[in-house]
Each structure stands twice: as C-alpha cells, then as structure tokens.
Inverse folding.
C-alpha cells in the first residue's frame, strides 16, 4: 500500500494497520517538513476511503487507483475531498491567492457546513487542512468544536510543519504522525528514474535537498533551466565579452558540469536545424566536460567554452 509515496515506512505501517482494521481516527496531524509526502498521503487516504472497487469497511485495504472515484481524487475534483487551504479561501473570498496569510474562521465554518451534510458520491468526506499551522486562533477554536464532536464518516487531515504551532487542544484530539526527511538514497534514486539524471548529478542534488523531494525537483529544474537558457542566450544573442565572463563566473559557482550537460542536451535538439554548426558545438561542449571531470578550473573551462561557442555563431 502507498507505493507511490517515498519512504515513510513507519507512517505507512500505522495507517495500513488502521485501514486493515477499518479503524481510522477522526482526525490526524501529518507533521513534517515540506516535500516529504504529507499531502500525497492525505489524498491516498481519501482514495482508500472512497474507492468504488474496493470497500474499506470490508477490510479491503487498497485503493484501485483507476475507478472513477480514485481518478477524481487524483485530479483533485472529487466532491467529497475538500481542501481547506489558501487556494480554497481565495476562491471563497474571491480574492488573490498571494493575499492569503492565515486560514480564517469563515473558511473553517464553510468546511463545517460541508461536514454536516452527507457525502455526495463517495462514502467518506475527507478534509485536508493545509497548512494547519496557519489557522488563526478563531479558526482553530472553531475547528476544535468539530474535533470534539466528529461528524460521521468524516476524516480530517491537518498538514503542518511543526507541532508547536498548533494549539494543544487540537493536537490532543488528533493522532499525530511524523513524516521523516527522505534519505539521500531515496531522493537520488527518484531523480535518476524520473528526471533522467546520472547517478553523480542525482547524488549531488540529493545532498542539497535537505530530505525534501520538492527541493530536489526544484534544484533539478533550476540546474536544467540554467543550462537550457544559457544555450539559447549564446546561440541567439551577441553577448559582450564582459557578459560572457560574468556568466561563466556565475555558472562556475552554481554547478559547471550540470550546466554543460544541460547545454549539450539543448544543443542536440538543434541538430536538425543547423547540423553544420551543432557538430563543432557538441565537440566543444564534450571537451569542456572532459576538462571539468579532470578538475581543471571551472571558470577557465567555461570562459573558453562560451567564447568559442559564441564565435561559432557570430
Ligand atoms: Zn478506486
């Protein structure tokens, strides 16, 4: 169960056993840093409870993942799965998302109104409050009333980074599950199979990601993007030498090899358009890669590479 969630062995064990015995709590707090699978786990719980193929109440523990209910939950459009978050609040208030700083009592009241009705098409109503630590005091007090008298067939999942930021009265009425930081092994393996990174680059990013898959994805994209845009810049713009030297200085600091690899990937895409120019460009990129692997000073290698590439195109 929960194969699509990385790591979190202990949380999975606890929830699996509760699901097997059809004994989920009314409210959980999924605690842990960003990017470790809390929200994904909350959605999985919603699937297990509402799957049209398997019946949670008969001890069937798996969500099929493909029935109409599971599909709607995957897409975030199931009428019995409710997100109580800044996006929802902005929608209710008809205001901008970036103006949302706290989850307010009106948003919790809206949730309570939903909770007091029967499930629309699923069997269970699931509310995901995220980030729960952003509830203001009035909102938290209002939620407390719901936790004291939990509605039938309803599971409330609070998602938060730290327990200390949530009122004790709420913590004491919820089951707290801690989500651990993901290991570097788990993250680098994921990067290799999902972002087609080689093991060295995947390991480097995993080391910088602080156990968060979100961080790792962002870092992988940033590195990718910097090489990608750099290739286009050098190919399409007449840069001054001072600009080029500035570029190579920055890239040398942020990860020369990743950048050269990303530029190589971009250059290969241009092969069909200007093959006569791309071959020598690929050769330059490849030579630079070899020099970087031999630990030749990155800035020197990049200075030469960028100047040589520019002279190919202008
Ligand atoms: Zn299903």
């Amino acid at each position: 169960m929960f194969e699509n969630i990385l790591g979190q062995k202990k949380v999975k064990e606890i929830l699996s056993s509760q699901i097997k015995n059809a004994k989920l709590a009314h409210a959980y707090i999924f605690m842990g840093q960003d990017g470790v699978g809390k929200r994904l786990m909350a959605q999985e719980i919603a699937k297990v409870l509402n799957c049209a193929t398997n019946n949670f109440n008969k001890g069937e523990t798996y969500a099929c993942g493909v029935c109409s209910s599971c599909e709607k939950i995957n897409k975030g459009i199931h009428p019995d799965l409710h997100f109580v978050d800044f996006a929802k609040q902005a929608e209710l208030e008809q205001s901008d998302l970036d103006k949302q700083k706290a989850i307010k009592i009106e948003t919790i009241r809206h949730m309570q109104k939903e909770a007091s009705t029967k499930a629309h098409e699923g069997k269970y109503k699931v509310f995901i409050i995220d980030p729960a630590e952003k509830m203001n005091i009035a909102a938290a007090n209002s939620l407390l009333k719901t936790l004291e008298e939990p509605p039938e067939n309803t599971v409330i999942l609070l998602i938060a980074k730290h327990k200390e930021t949530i009122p004790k009265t709420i913590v004491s009425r919820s089951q707290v599950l801690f989500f651990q930081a993901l290991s570097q092994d788990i993250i680098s393996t994921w990067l290799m199979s999902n972002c087609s990174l080689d093991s060295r680059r995947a390991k480097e990013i995993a080391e910088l990601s602080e156990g968060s898959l979100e961080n790792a994805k962002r870092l992988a994209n940033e590195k990718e993007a910097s090489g990608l845009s750099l290739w286009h810049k050098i190919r399409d713009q007449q840069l001054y030498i001072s600009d080029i030297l500035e570029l190579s200085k920055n890239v040398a600091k942020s990860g020369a090899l990743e950048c050269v690899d990303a530029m190589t990937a971009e250059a290969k895409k241009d092969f069909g358009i200007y093959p006569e120019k791309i071959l020598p460009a690929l050769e330059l990129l490849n030579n630079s890669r070899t020099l970087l692997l031999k630990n030749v000073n990155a800035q020197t290698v990049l200075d030469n590479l960028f100047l040589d590439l520019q002279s190919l195109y202008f």
The chain has a mean pLDDT of 89. Residues 184-313 form one domain. The chain has two domains: 9-178, 184-313.
